[in-house]
Amino acid sequence: MRETKSRAGDPLQDETTEAPQPAGKLRLLWRFWTRRIITLPEDRFFLFLAVLIGVFSGLAVVCFRVAIELTKLSLLGSTLAPLPLRVVVVPTMGGLVVALLVLYVFPQARGSGVNQTKAAVYISDGYIPFSTVIGKFLTCALAIGSGQSLGPEDPSLQMGAGIASAIGRRLNLSQEKVRLIAPVGAAAGLAAAFNAPISSVLFVIEEVIGTWSAGVLGAIVLAAVSSVVTMRAFLGSESLFRVPPFRMAGSAELLAYVVLGIAGGAASLAFLKWIVYARPRLQAMPRWTHHFQPAVAGLLVGFIGIWLPQVMGAGYPIVDQALHGQFTWKLLLILAGLKIIATGISFLSGTPGGMFAPTLFIGAMLGGAVGSIEHHFFPSLTGTVGTFALVGMGTLFAGFLRAPITSVFMVIEVSGNYTAVLPVMISSLVAYLISRRYQKVPLFDLLARQEGLVLPSIEEQREQTPPTVEDAMEKESALTVQPSESVSEVARRAEANASSSLLLRVHPGEWWLLDRDEILRLAADSNPSSKAVHAKAKGPLPYLFPDQPLEEALRWSQDWPVLPVVSRADLGQLQGVITLATVLETFREPHTEPTASPDF
Amino acid sequence: MRFLHTSYSDIPVRAMRSDGVFFLSSMVSAITDDTPAAVGEARSYTRERVLFFSVLLLLLLLVFTAFAARLYHKQIHVLADQWFAQGEAMFKAGNIAEALRDYRNGLVYAPDNRGFQFHLAQALAAAGRSEEARSYLLNLLSETPGSGPVNLELARIAARQGNMQDALRYYHGAIFGVWDIDPIAMRWQIRRELCEYVLAHGSASQAEEEVVALAVNTPSQDLPGLLEAGKFLLRAQLWPRALNEFQLVLAAEPRNTKALAGAGTAAFRLGQYSESLQYLSRLPADQRAAPAIAEMIATSRGILAADPYLPGLSAAEKARRATRALAQAESRAAACAEMKGEPLAATPPASALEETFASRQEQRLNWRERSLEMHPERLDSAMAWVFKVEDLTASQCGPPQGEDGVLSLIEKIHSGRNP
After folding, report:
1. Hey, CA dihedral for A338, A344, A350, A356, is it positive or negative?
2. What DSSP string describes A353-414?
3. What DSSP letter does each residue of B58-86 carry, written as one string?
4. pLDDT tens by residue, A320-344
5. Could you tell me which residues come within 8 angstroms of residue B163 by beta carbon, excluding any fewer than 6 positions away?
6. Cα angle vertex B416, ends B415, B419, to 5°?
7. How confident is the model at residue B44, as a pLDDT?
8. I need a labelling partner for B44 at 20 to 30 A (CA). Which of A18, A366, B67, B121 fits?
9. By CA distance, what is A383's nearest residue in B?
10. Which residues of chain B lie closer than 8 angstroms to A69, CB-CB?
11. Strand pairing partners for A577?
């Protein structure tokens, strides 16, 4: 609305005042808020971005899941057991199309997505081309929708990372932030796919970043939460699986889950070894065969599907049936075995798709089978077959994907049930230890190395014990001097003691360094005074604690010839000293077992 | 210039909006000036622009996702309903295998639909796959612990599996659970089912408890219910309560044949033979001819004709009945001795029966009809002898029949034992 006040007879003196129109108000509001957001310090702006990335990833995952389901409905129909001809033709043709798309349009869409995200963080400074997101979306929707035995979670993780990377690049974030933004998106994508924010945060930290960095943890949590909230707004908040109630009568029953852990460890090994053995061989085949590998995989999966259509696709409804004790132990074992074969075939053929859902499937079937057999011999076991199936999911997740902490939380989140936490912890640990004992390199590291990438192994990092100050500390090589001592007294003690370093303790927590030779020279003078001791000291010295990482000591060791190591309980109590030479010598000593050889 | 080392080459100077003068000026200053402030302004411009397009894209994606999700949910709902309806039709047609397949297909598209889960569980139970049905039902029960139908299905499964403790628990859960349609009638029906179950499998005390609860919870206007409760009370041998239930029915419908038969039976079991005969004789002839009813009528008549203790009898009649009872007992003892191949009148008496028979000889004069009429106090000793003979012969020669049976029942009535 424009108001005009006119002074009579003087049009040039018209005074025009404008009240903002609705559109103008909106613009002003927009300007106000955007200015406030973009002028935020980088760290806070990063948190804002995490929410934005979470919402984008959540929407993308919703569309992805809808696309998979609609593809499946239109290609395979709505029944759990489609007609045999469809079961064979659809995955074969789907595989052919996927192969062409991957080879000629979206070459980076190949694989599960976890390693690609790790590679983005550690190799390409957080760069993931947006075409990868589109490629992953299209090829995975077609592959999984047409019945290939793969899951949507790992692709969702990579899509989230790709979206985050694109946003980060467009916003001209610092190099460090762009590198960190991919895991933020990865957590968002995985959280929305699993409807499990805690597990996704843990997985990204456990498998992608490897450290609990406070700088990125907040952003990862925010992104995961916002993506899950977005996803739930469209697809509902129900947990992935409905689990019958379970009550464990006594701790002795945990032994039953140890058996499941052993079986899960063995199955994980079998699955891992099958991929380790076959992948390089299939990749080494002539390039023209790569055009047909996904189609052949589809054909083989289809043939299995004629007999047991349960092994096709991600298999969530089948897992739900297993959780409700719908299958006999024989069928459960067959399904577990065939799913290992079918997933291996689909994955090894280069068809894009994830390993998470098949892992859960195999675990559920194996768990159900073990539970049924144990129930046969020990009918008094209170855990139902469904409980064993649930625990089996976590077990295989820990054994195959080697993410033991994630596995425990994932079981809680996907089932919405806390009661199985102790069995899952026991069983997962056993499976993890077995898998690690007989397969040194974890799956994702293995796949990366087969592709010629040497990504940091988070599992190896976890197992390394970094040297501490205590390892480099010399206990008897320093002499503590009090300010009240005279130069002659100090010189006498220095001569009597073999210690090369003289440390003057002014106050608890304030240490100064004395030059031994200078003190001896002063003592040789005619009239040394007690004040001269303090006057000749250099300091104050930075002090260290025995448990501090040696890396921190290295920083100070270059500036000072000797550094005091004091007790945390009493800053005036000297426990030893370190020098640059001892620090370097300690670093040269081996502190961990040598990492796995490149031949795996 | 430091700004050249940054990646601002993608800043389009001409992509200005009407209010973009600020951005243009900041861009120009950024290009010509490499101070941190200028670089910061250029970065701000880029960020604002990207944020604007991000929000725009977000809105578009939001709309698209909402549309796609709506389409998806619509299709899913349609498929779920179709499969469920097909499953229902198959289940009703008795094609359980097909029904199971259809219910499962329906559950794929509505995994949280409790109705589908419940129907699948019912179909599984009908197919004899109790453990699988139980698993679904337990899941449902954890979500709706007070559900009447779920408790009832679990109770039936437990009953089939012979797990009485669980069956009773779930039956009670069903009785006190929530029912959407006609809860009172449903609860009564479940009590009835529970009574049927405990009478067939449970102990007497459990049966009594449940049957009494059924009777207590039957409204006095509900005549079919009262009849049903009366039948269960008869089966639980709770005769007075059963008689009471049937009398309630007869008060409203005096000619109700089921109530007459029930009341007659209950009165008979209570030893109220006169009352029993009254009820049973009001039945139509064809029902009176039924073996069980006819036997009760005959027995009641026999007792009413033979019992010397019935009130209102003259001394002569009492003596006559006692004399007839003595003669009957004597012949029963003789028949029993003959069957065993033993002499009845051995000297000295070797068995309890012979001993008892010898005491009869000693009292022969005292227990003559005339003597008993003159000395009514001798009636008790005479009848005590009769009852002793009936007891002995019953233990040695099998259960009494006919008039001997009547005498046994008379003994039970007057000894305070339940006839």
Report:
1. positive
2. -BSHHHHHHHHHHHHHHHHHHHHHH-TT--S-HHHHHHHHHHHHHHHHS--HHHHHHHHHHH
3. HHHHHHHHHHHHHHHHHHHHHHHHHHHHH
4. 889 888 788 999 999 999 999 999 9
5. none
6. 95
7. 67
8. A18
9. B135
10. 72, 76
11. A474, A564
pTM passes above 0.90: no
Distance from CA of A564 to the nearest CA of B (A): 42
Dist CA A261 CA B205 (whole Å): 48
Residue of chain B whose Cα is closest to the Cα of A245: B139
The reported pLDDT for the residue numbered A549 is 86
A38–B7: do the CB atoms touch at under 8 Å?
Answer: no
Say if CB A364 and CB A326 are below 8 A apart: no
Q: For residue A92, give every residue at least 6 positions away whose Cβ sits within 8 Å of its Cβ, in sequence order, or none.
A: A295, A296, A298, A299, A302
- With CB atoms and an 8 Å threshold, state whether A321 touches B58: no
Amino acid at B40: G
Q: Residue A481 pairs with which residues in a beta bridge?
A: A504
CB pair distance less than 8 Å for A34 and B51: yes
Alpha carbon distance, N-terminus to C-terminus of chain B: 119
Best B19, B53, B54, B147 member to test A by mutation, with max A CBs in 10 Å, is B54
What is the distance between the alpha carbons of residues A398 and A413, in angstroms, rounded to a whole number? 15
In whole numbers, what is the pLDDT of chain B averaged over residues? 82
Q: End-to-end distance of chain A based on CA atoms, in angstroms?
A: 75
Confidence of residue B34 (pLDDT cuts 50, 70, 90): low
Q: Are A411 and A389 in contact (CB under 8 A)?
A: no
Which of B390, B380, B323, B379 has its CA nearest to residue B356?
A: B390
Nearest to B395, CA basis, from B351, B345, B358: B351
| Pairing label, strands A478-481, A501-507 | parallel
Residues of B near A (Cβ–Cβ under 8 Å) read 6-8, 19, 43-44, 46-48, 50-52, 54, 58, 61-62, 64-66, 68-69, 71-72, 75-76, 79, 83, 101, 104-105, 107-109, 111-112, 131-132, 135-136, 138-139, 141-142
> For B329-380, what is each residue's pLDDT tens digit?
888 888 888 887 777 676 666 677 777 777 777 777 778 878 888 888 888 8
Name every residue whose Cβ is closer than 8 Å to that of residue A101 and which is 6 or more positions away in sequence: A109, A135, A138, A139, A142
What residues pair up with A505 in beta bridges, in sequence order?
A511
Pick left, alpha or beta for residue A325 (phi over 0 → left; psi -120 to 50 → alpha; otherwise beta): left
Q: Do B69 and A234 touch (CB under 8 A)?
A: yes
Cα within 13 Å of Cα(A160), Cβ side: 44
- Quick one: how far is CA A91 from the chain centroid? 32
Count of A-B CB contacts under 8 Å: 112
Measure the CA–CA gap between A84 and B374, rounded to whole angstroms. 103
pLDDT greater than 60 at residue B1: no
| Nearest Cα residue in chain B from A243 | B139
Report the residue of chain B nearest A63, measured CA to CA: B65
Spatial neighbors of A538 by CB under 8 A, at least 6 apart, are A512, A513, A514, A515
pLDDT in tens, A104-155: 999 888 877 888 888 888 888 888 899 999 999 999 999 999 999 999 999 9
Mean pLDDT score of chain A, rounded to an integer? 85
Whether B46 has a pLDDT exceeding 80, the answer reads: no
The set of long-range contacts for B217-220, using a CB threshold of 8 Å and a minimum separation of 24, is B217/B187, B217/B188, B217/B191, B218/B188, B218/B245, B220/B248
